[in-house]
Amino acid sequence: MNCPLCEAKSRVVESRPTDAGAGVRRRRECESCEHRFTTFERREDAVPTVCKRDGRRQIFDPAKVRAGLERAAHKRQRAAAATEAIAAGVIAEATRQREISSRRIGELCLDGLRDADRIAYLRYASVHKQLADLDAIRAELSEFDLEVVAATPVVEPRRDELTEPAKSAVFATAAAPTARTPAPTF
Ligand SMILES: [Zn+2]
């Protein structure tokens, strides 16, 4: 560390731990002009511990958060586009704490995915077995089932058997399928 006045080298004259051992405060003295100054060294991003469902503990791993989200968002454009932002939010929240449960990490991921894409949300929920969220998943599922039923003609009538209003109703639905409903072939 160079002297702030003359840029010559300095030596440490005193070291003291700070932040309960997460940092060091050093008094330094310039080897040339004897000016004294202080430096602080701090540990970067203390890594939180993850408390797993079975009681085991591990070091928080941001790569696992990203991998879980990416798996859920596979081939889901909206969810895939949101993955990095969701991961960043979850990682920021986790690293603010000394300890976080795997369940809480799962909830945070689900919160993000719910807004981005329901299929990715359901995939994540089923893979990570967020049992606390079961009622919410049921609600999402029944809503989703209703949507599929509404968007899928129960029978596929021939065009010439339909009156005009019925034709437009059925084929308007078929012509604008949702992303998750394959278009019926005629
Ligand atoms: Zn100096």
List descriptors:
6 strands, binds zinc ion, three-stranded antiparallel beta sheet, 6 helices, 186 residues, 18% strand, alpha+beta, three-stranded mixed beta sheet, elongated
Structure overview:
The protein has helices at 62-72, 77-95, 102-116, 118-128, 134-151, 164-175; strands at residues 10-18, 23-30, 36-42, 49-51, 57-59, 99-101. It has 186 residues and is of the alpha+beta class. Among the domains are: 10-42; 49-132, no CATH class. It is elongated. It binds zinc ion. Zinc ion binds next to loops.
Walk me through the topology.
Elements: E1 10-18, E2 23-30, E3 36-42, E4 49-51, E5 57-59, H1 62-72, H2 77-95, E6 99-101, H3 102-116, H4 118-128, H5 134-151, H6 164-175
Parallel strand pairs: 4-6
Antiparallel strand pairs: 1-2, 2-3, 4-5
Helix pairs in contact: 1-2, 1-4, 2-3, 3-4
Bound molecules: zinc ion.
Short description:
By secondary structure, the chain is of the alpha+beta class. The chain is 46% helix and 18% strand.
User: What percent of residues adopt helix (DSSP H or I)?
Assistant: 40-55%
Distance between the termini: 77 Å
Number of helices: 6
List each distinct ligand once: zinc ion
Number of strands: 6
List the helices and strands in order.
Answer: EEEEEHHEHHHH
Classify the beta-strand content into a percent band: 15-25%
Largest sheet properties: 3 strands, antiparallel
**Which value, in Å, is the CA radius of gyration?**
29 Å
Q: Looking at the structure, what is the overall shape?
A: elongated
Residue runs with pLDDT of under 50 for 5 or more positions: 152-157, 166-179
**Biggest sheet strand line-up:** 1-2-3
